[in-house]
Write the structure tokens for this entry.
Amino acid sequence: MKIFVCMKQVPAAATASIDPLTKTIVRTANNAVTNPFDLYALQTALDIRKQTGGSLTAITMGIPAAERVLRDAVSRGADGGVLLSDRAFAGADTLATSYALSLGIEKMGGSDLIVCGKMAVDGDTAQIGPELAQHLGIPHVSDVCEILEAAEDHLVVRRVWDEVEQELYLPLPALITVVKGQNLPQLATIPGMLRGRDVEIPLFTAEALNADTERCGLKGSPTQVVRTFTPPVRGQAKTIEGSETQQAEELAKVIKEVLYGAD
């Protein structure tokens, strides 16, 4: 089976910032981490590959520094990675992003299964997976919480959707998005980290993908962000001095004030 897992870099919460002109999130190498949902997607893909055999490739679209997300995926067990990077992709909303990802997967010869995290924690739209499936013309199931059966031509999955639990048969090729908590993402091993360090990561530009630049980046993004802002810092940290007993007593007073108000 040929499996792709979609990965994404997201800004660490403490360092997130907004571009005042484009109203998009500023993404740099220094403030990025792997989207948490995508680690569960990666583990799901690894578990399926273990049952069915085949290959597993991580794919992402982003700045050149996003390559490290792919190397991390390889260090955790993926066979390889593919990076889509071009200034033409900058400022893309979910529709433009999923369009580029679909071209990248087609460039690599297509897939039997695509696994995505439910959503990215910086946007919370949960749109990339379904839109990617639509671009590729394949069925999809979102919010998957368990893989009940994995075979070369189908999956049987369980999902909880709008408080309704469903078991669904999904013919392949297809796409699924997975929620957090259905598995425990495995850590990178030392041999895996060495593979991740040394593996060659192909980079495809918009030209290499024969992309329609009118459908990429800001040009291809029908979603217009009117206003974006980082939440203001609320409250102020308080340092509690003294012995362990004194600190515990003072902390108990603070908790009591928060819960019940001052006497």
